[in-house]
Amino acid sequence: MRRQNKKHRTIRKCISGPNFTGQHLLHHPQTIRQLMETVLLRSTDTVLEIGAGKGVLTFPLAEKVDRVIAVEMDANFVKTLREKAENHPKIKLIQGDIREIGLPAKPFCVVANIPFSITTAILEKLMGAEGHAFQRGALILEKGAARRFTKSSTMDPRLLMWRMNFQFEMRTMVPRTHFAPPPSVDAAIVRIVRRDHPLMSAKEGNKFIAFAAYALSEPKQPVADTFRGIFTPVQLKMALKNAKVDREQAVAFLSLEQWASLFHTMLQYVTPNRWPRK
Ligand SMILES: C[S@@+](CC[C@H](N)C(=O)[O-])C[C@H]1O[C@@H](n2cnc3c(N)ncnc32)[C@H](O)[C@@H]1O
Hints:
One of its GO terms (molecular function) is rRNA (adenine-N6,N6-)-dimethyltransferase activity. InterPro entries: KsgA/Erm, rRNA_Ade_diMease-like_C, rRNA_Ade_Mease_Trfase_CS, rRNA_Ade_methylase_Trfase_N, SAM-dependent_MTases_sf. Pfam families: RrnaAD (PF00398). This protein is an alpha/beta fold. It has two domains: about 1-195, Vaccinia Virus protein VP39 (Rossmann fold, 3-Layer(aba) Sandwich), CATH 3.40.50.150; about 205-275, Orthogonal Bundle (Helicase, Ruva Protein, domain 3). About 40% of the residues lie in helices and about 20% in strands. β5 (about 110-115), α5 and β6 (about 135-140) form a beta-alpha-beta unit. The structure holds S-adenosylmethionine.
């Protein structure tokens, strides 16, 4: 019983703490400017702002673009924003959890200083089938996550899938002192741009993730050994030829184009009962 109470107290403390929703508000003018410049906004753009806070980005954005859709979960912030945005016809405020709100159906950009704790959920939403109209964005991410998403190679199947459709680029480091209250780690601005020629449809995402997870379970293994488990010998020969991959090449060194080619050969020629499942 005592142990249960202690656990209960700990949970309450976390939930009621000042930063359970990642409320680290930007106050540094240069970072605010850099974030907005990173996304190359046009006056006709629609911008989705995730976690608008007190509006430090919302109002400058509304001066640059046609429409700002500002999503904020905290009722107190929304109240402040509503008062401030009364005479701003370009700003649409939505109170709610970004994870549960439908994304725009028409092309849109994202500019946001997001709550770090839900970074993956936000990116999953933007880069999945629901985010079909997401074009480009500038996001402030926790520095470690920013490095992970932008490093040249990855063995994370989900990140590989995102990279089939989007390019990630590390822009500027943002010291924790640029936020109030400061988070426990520094941050960085990351630019995300949809590829002109996507390598895969987001609708195929889950199948690709299962395919890549299967292959990356032994990243140092030669591709011929790995993919023997999926393709017949004839199919394997054709798949490697189509993808221009040497039989002895390690899975870890496959390029995005080679991943896409091997995956599409599987979809086209291999019976679904041999496809890896999640
Ligand atoms: C890092 S702060 C950024 C605030 C403001 N944009 C700024 O830069 O000062 C993140 C904001 O996201 C809000 N937030 C947290 N979780 C959210 C969620 N699931 N959906 C929408 N907003 C959320 C927080 O209340 C907070 O205002």
